[in-house]
Amino acid sequence: MGQADQAPAARARIRGKQPRSNPTPKAGRNLPAAVVVGLAMLFAVLGGLLLLPLGFVAVTTTFAIFGVWEIYRALEANGTRMPIVPVMTGTVAMPFAAYLGGIESLLFAMLLSSVAVLLWRSVESAAGSANSIFAGVFTLGWVPFFISFAVLPLHAAGGATPLGLWPGGTIPQGAWQVAVMLLLVVSNDTFGYLVGASLGKHPMAPKISPKKSWEGFAGSIGGAMLIGTLACLFVLDKPWWVGIVLAVGLVAASTAGDLAESMVKRELGIKDMSSILPGHGGVMDRLDSIVFASPAAFILYGLVAGA
Fold first, then answer.
1. Are 213 and 261 a contacting pair, CB within 8 Å?
2. Which DSSP string corresponds to 98-128?
3. Element (H, E) at 213
4. pTM of the entire structure?
5. Which of the 8 DSSP states describes residue 158?
6. Residue 196 DSSP SS3
7. Does the pLDDT value for residue 25 go beyond 60?
8. pLDDT band at residue 27, thresholds of 50, 70 and 90?
9. Distances in Å between the alpha carbon of 119 and those of 65, 87, 115, 171, 207?
10. In angstroms, rounded to a whole number, what is the distance separating the alpha carbons of residues 284 and 304?
């Protein structure tokens, strides 16, 4: 059986792994399972972020590894074999490069990983090399590079990157900034889901994500503005309007990330990247918003730094 014949069969196998027996509400997810899993992940990430920064980097890297692996499997099922060894090496290297060396090290790690993908693929057969190289560099930029922006504020904290607990037990502003970014992404998803499931009637992008509605988007904006305002007043010690700016910017970025992943999945003919997270699908189905929100938050925090 040739590659063209194998692709539909492989896609069917991936789709066959998706849970079909559990009923889902209008928005398409099992809400209790989604809430439990989401809260567990949030507490794990925030625990590492606020207590042991290197642990947060390790958790971030682990999520990125799972996300890249899901993309690799989905692409392989459609006949595109990504050079997984250099891509995974870059996935592990980039968050730690951002944490230990800052943005210059992150950019260098991205460049070096992209060159490694090109060189790795150049010693293999020429068949499908263009698609393979594009898939590898695209995945490097989409997941580990973007998500490493969530680590950059920790490097900037205090001018030195601790390898243990935060010095003096004092959590720096950069760590709180990342925490607020994560809370805004969660509030975007939560309020959008609740409003969209009950009131959603007008799809934002019916050909890409039919269940994502303008009503849900409005709910995301309103909920994130509330959370952002409270977080700026009581956590970041910033004016209330900074919370509005962060909320609008991060909801827009999160929604763009969600739609981007939905477009990729629709192109690949799959519903979820995997079924590893009950109520959520795959790891990439949770990272899709964060990978876009992380660089957006990094930019927005820089713009409002003097507020």
1. no
2. HHHH-HHHHHHHHHHHHHHHHHHHHTS-STT
3. strand 209-213
4. 0.84
5. G
6. helix
7. no
8. very low
9. 21, 12, 6, 42, 37
10. 30
Contact between residue 143 and residue 71 where contact means Cβ atoms under 8 Å apart = yes
**Beta carbons of 99 and 161 less than 8 angstroms apart:** yes
3-state SS, residue 211: strand
Phi and psi at 209, nearest 5°, equal: -140, 85
CA neighbours closer than 13 Å in the CB half-sphere of residue 238: 23
The whole-number pLDDT of residue 2 equals 47
Q: Which two tokens stand for residue 183?
A: 């809370």
Identity of the amino acid at 29:
R
* Cα end-to-end distance, the chain, whole Å: 63
pLDDT in tens, 179-201: 999 999 989 988 998 888 888 78
Q: Of the spans 13-17, 73-77, 160-164, 272-276, which averages the highest pLDDT? A: 73-77
